[in-house]
């Protein structure tokens, strides 16, 4: 028991880093992902191609490789970012692609009757999107969003390779020093707790947005 | 002479190189109720959607209340009114769809207020009495806080009619407003439309309800294969159809 308490301090600090990366990424990904999705569904061909290319690259290469690129390759080109910024940039770029695809599928699942009704009532394109389409989309994208959000929690552990002291790295440091596996179990507990809380929150949101269905 | 609300001439429309409308004329005067009838696939919906620019015509011209909505120039190019003007003209027409197309995430009242407040920028206090009056007229005052999913199809369609009326259109277009309804629910929607006609609303109604067309409309247009086969008063079309095609269609409908 004493041992766990003694491990807890560095591990709490590690989970703070993990949480910070998770939350900041999540907060940035939502609006940017939505904008990318709207761009993908807008009628501008060049914009569509550009965004398609971006999504293809982000989803078609490992997140680990993208992290290494931002962290090690960019400095060679003279762009040296602080660790935290580099990590946030990589995660945001990567996860924006996934969330944008989820939002796009949600937007495209809304029937054309809604657009026609809005048009006949004189609503502009942006009014139609923000007031009619996106609010209906939210309810439909919550389940896939929940999955992707949990993936993000777990993927934050990839910053392990960037020598940032996140939860996983804190755990491994202790394991290597003390030859005791308990920190891994504690780390698993942290991740499970976060996943549990997120799952619960998404369930509540789904219930809230289902009231009109 | 009564005001011409819709004056359309030679409307042509193709889909994938197929003629769906091959030169249609439509004339609607103030207070007219025009029923458009005809077999499935004859182009009735397409015609209605061309009148309000949900589809763009490939040829011909349309005037709404004397204003040029679309015309053809000397070399056969189709030219619509400038963007703002076109939107304004479109706003004079309310549309009721077969599938209602209510906004499911808004209450009944929310559906009615959405466009007056956000498109016309009317203050809520100003539009609220009208919206409440409209709901009373369609018999749904007690449902104003309900969501569309909590209503029957007939109730939803009546809300859709009220929503279109809340924008105070000069012309109401209906595309088979009762076709998605169970037979026992069509009556209430037709009743609402009948009342609207009695208040001299100008209406264009695509319908399979021959009794409604006969009793409520004062003009009937029978279409087949993208052409107007016969047009006239309900008596002329239903009691004395001149063309074989019309006679066959009516015999099958009865
Ligand atoms: N968006 C579209 N793209 C391609 N073809 C279309 C489109 N809309 C209609 N059509 C075709 O145009 C023809 C006329 O269709 P329309 O919907 O106007 O007929 P309708 O008289 O309303 O029939 P119904 O009584 O079944 O509603 C049909 O052959 C239909 O397949
Ligand atoms: Mg039709």
Automatic annotation (TrEMBL), chain A:
- Quote the SUPFAM superfamilies the UniProt record gives: MetI-like
Membrane topology designation: Multi-pass membrane protein
Q: Which GO terms describe its biological process?
A: amino acid transport
Which Gene Ontology CC terms are recorded? ATP-binding cassette (ABC) transporter complex
So where does this one cross the membrane? 20-39, 51-72, 84-103, 181-202
Keyword Repressor attributed: no
Domain ABC transmembrane type-1: where?
Answer: 15-202
Return the protein name.
Answer: Amino acid ABC transporter permease
Which protein family is named in the record? Belongs to the binding-protein-dependent transport system permease family.
Identify one Pfam family in the record. BPD_transp_1
NCBIfam families per UniProt: HEQRo_perm_3TM
Entry keyword set: Amino-acid transport, Cell membrane, Membrane, Transmembrane, Transmembrane helix, Transport
**Localization:** Cell membrane
Q: Which organism is it from?
A: Selenomonas ruminis
Q: Chief location of this protein?
A: membrane
Alphabetized Gene3D superfamilies for the sequence: MetI-like
Single annotated GO MF = transmembrane transporter activity
InterPro entries from the entry? AA_ABC_transptr_permease_3TM, ArtM/GltK/GlnP/TcyL/YhdX-like, MetI-like, MetI-like_sf
């Amino acid at each position: 028991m004493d041992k766990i308490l003694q491990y807890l301090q560095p591990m709490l600090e590690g989970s703070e880093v993990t949480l910070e990366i998770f939350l900041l990424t999540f907060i940035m990904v939502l609006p940017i992902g939505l904008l990318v999705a709207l761009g993908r569904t807008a009628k501008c061909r060049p914009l569509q191609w550009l965004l398609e290319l971006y999504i293809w690259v982000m989803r078609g290469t490992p997140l680990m490789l993208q992290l290494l690129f931002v962290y090690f390759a960019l400095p060679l080109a003279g762009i040296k970012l602080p660790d935290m910024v580099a990590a946030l940039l990589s995660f945001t770029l990567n996860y924006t692609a996934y969330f944008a695809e989820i939002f796009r599928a949600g937007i495209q699942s809304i029937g054309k009757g809604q657009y026609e009704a809005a048009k006949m009532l004189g609503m502009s394109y942006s009014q139609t999107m923000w007031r009619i389409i996106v609010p209906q989309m939210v309810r439909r994208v919550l389940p896939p969003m929940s999955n992707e959000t949990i993936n993000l929690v777990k993927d934050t552990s990839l910053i392990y390779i960037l020598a940032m002291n996140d939860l996983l790295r804190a755990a491994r440091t202790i394991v290597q020093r003390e030859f005791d596996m308990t920190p891994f179990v504690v780390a698993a507990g942290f991740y499970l707790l976060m996943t549990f809380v997120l799952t619960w929150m998404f369930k509540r949101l789904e219930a809230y947005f289902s009231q009109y269905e | 002479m009564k005001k011409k609300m819709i004056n359309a001439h030679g409307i042509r429309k193709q889909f994938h190189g197929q003629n769906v409308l091959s030169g249609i004329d439509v004339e609607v005067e103030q207070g007219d109720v025009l029923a458009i009838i005809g077999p499935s696939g004859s182009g009735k919906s397409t015609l209605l959607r061309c009148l309000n620019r949900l589809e763009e015509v490939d040829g011909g011209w349309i005037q709404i209340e004397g204003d040029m909505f679309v015309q053809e120039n000397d070399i056969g190019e189709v030219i619509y009114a400038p963007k703002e003007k076109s939107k304004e003209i479109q706003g004079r027409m309310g549309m009721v769809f077969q599938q209602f197309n209510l906004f499911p995430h808004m209450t009944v009242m929310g559906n009615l207020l959405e466009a007056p407040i956000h498109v016309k920028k009317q203050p809520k206090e100003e539009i609220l009495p009208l919206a409440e009056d409209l709901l009373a007229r369609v018999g749904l005052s007690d449902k104003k806080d309900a969501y569309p999913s909590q209503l029957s199809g007939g109730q939803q369609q009546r809300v859709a009619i009220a929503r279109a009326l809340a924008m105070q259109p000069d012309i109401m277009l209906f595309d088979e407003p009762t076709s998605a309804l169970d037979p026992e629910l069509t009556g209430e929607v037709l009743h609402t439309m009948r009342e609207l006609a009695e208040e001299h609303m100008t209406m264009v109604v695509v319908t399979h309800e021959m009794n409604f067309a006969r009793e409520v409309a004062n003009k009937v247009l029978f279409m087949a294969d993208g052409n107007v086969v016969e047009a006239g008063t309900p008596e002329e079309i239903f009691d004395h159809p001149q063309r074989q095609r019309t006679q066959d269609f009516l015999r099958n409908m009865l």
